[in-house]
Amino acid sequence: MTIIDGKAVSANLREKIKAEAALLPEKPGLAVILVGDDPASQTYVKNKKLACEQCGFYSEEYRLPASTTQEELLLLIEKLNCDDKINGILVQLPVPEHIDDVAVIQAISPEKDVDAFGYENVGKIMIGNFHYVPCTPAGVMQLLKAYNIEIGGKNAVVVGRSNIVGKPQAMLLLHANATVTIAHSKTANLADVTKNADILVSAVGIPKFIKKDMVKDGAVVIDVGMNRDENGKLCGDVDFEAVKDKTSYITPVPGGVGPMTITMLMQNTLESKKQQIQKNK
Ligand code: NDP
């Protein structure tokens, strides 16, 4: 059994991104917008700014009060859409309830939609011809690649069907020629489905949800979950201690998929800058 070291893979990738960015005539630029004062969102925003510094990117941060109107937010996005220094615009979700998150995501120009949440980029991912990778699922694919884990012809089961993780994860595995099953809360006999997985990706959001008897011997288990256990400690979806010895590869939480997500955001911002340079030639 090998424990996949997401921190190391992520650090390695960030070095490559930094080296590639340093060769460009201008720095890639990311604007991060946070509306309200959700503590988890504040941490994510702080980490994104830090990642920009590490990769030598230009960054702008907008911390707006929870009372910000949708119109004000859309105006800011419009301004950033037209700003050549900015290659990626990220609105940290969730936004306060009075703001329509779909309208906000759709307002970001597809070239600067580095989260790849907008309709155009989602469509491209579906077709398999995409510039921007959905960050968390793409991070999972990079981990599999870093450990030379074969995907083609394998049975992959993704538990969870959210638009930001489960669905795009299933598409990326499908593009890599896995035979993919997507399971969710209405799946009957879930353990029978997951036991069939050579590669099991869990994106559910429930601590210790994936138990030993749900995992096939020698499976690759990827835990996307970021949850708090009964003691408030960060944990994944997988009952790690019970499951690990049954697997060939497993990601820990923390230190598995988590560090990859922001790295893939940096990758997308770099890609956006490269496209802009190409277009202006
Ligand atoms: P959502 O809540 O949007 O989706 C959860 C999915 O799990 C749903 O599709 C739901 O099914 C399914 N589910 C819930 N209960 C069960 C059950 N009993 N059996 C089977 N399936 C079930 O969550 P996200 O996709 O946004 O996130 C999932 C997890 O990943 C969370 O812990 C989140 O914190 C973490 N995460 C981690 C990231 C990282 O960077 N590492 C980034 C993003 C998320 P249904 O559709 O039927 O309701």
List keywords for this structure.
281 residues, Rossmann fold, 3-stranded parallel β-sheet, alpha/beta, 2 domains, binds NADPH dihydro-nicotinamide-adenine-dinucleotide phosphate, 10 helices
Structural summary, described in words:
The chain has 281 residues and is of the alpha/beta class. It has two domains: 24-109, Leucine Dehydrogenase, chain A, domain 1 (Rossmann fold, 3-Layer(aba) Sandwich), CATH 3.40.50.10860; 135-258, 3-Layer(aba) Sandwich (Rossmann fold), CATH 3.40.50.720. Helices cover 41% and strands 17% of the residues. The protein contains ten helices and eleven strands. The strands form three sheets. It has a six-stranded parallel beta sheet. A three-stranded parallel beta sheet has the order 3-2-4, sandwiched between helices. The protein has a two-stranded antiparallel sheet with strand order 9-10. Helix 6 packs across helix 7. The longest helix has 23 residues, at 258-280. The model has no long low-confidence stretch (mean pLDDT 97). It binds NADPH dihydro-nicotinamide-adenine-dinucleotide phosphate.
- Give the spatial strand order of the biggest sheet: 1-11-8-7-5-6
Radius of gyration: 19 Å
Which residues form runs of ≥5 with pLDDT under 50? Answer: none
Which small molecules are bound? Answer: NADPH dihydro-nicotinamide-adenine-dinucleotide phosphate
Order of helices and strands: EHEHEHEHHHEHEHEEEEHEH
Largest sheet: 6 strands, parallel
Provide a compact summary of the structure.
This protein is α/β, with parallel strands linked by helices and 281 residues long. It is 41% helix and 17% strand.
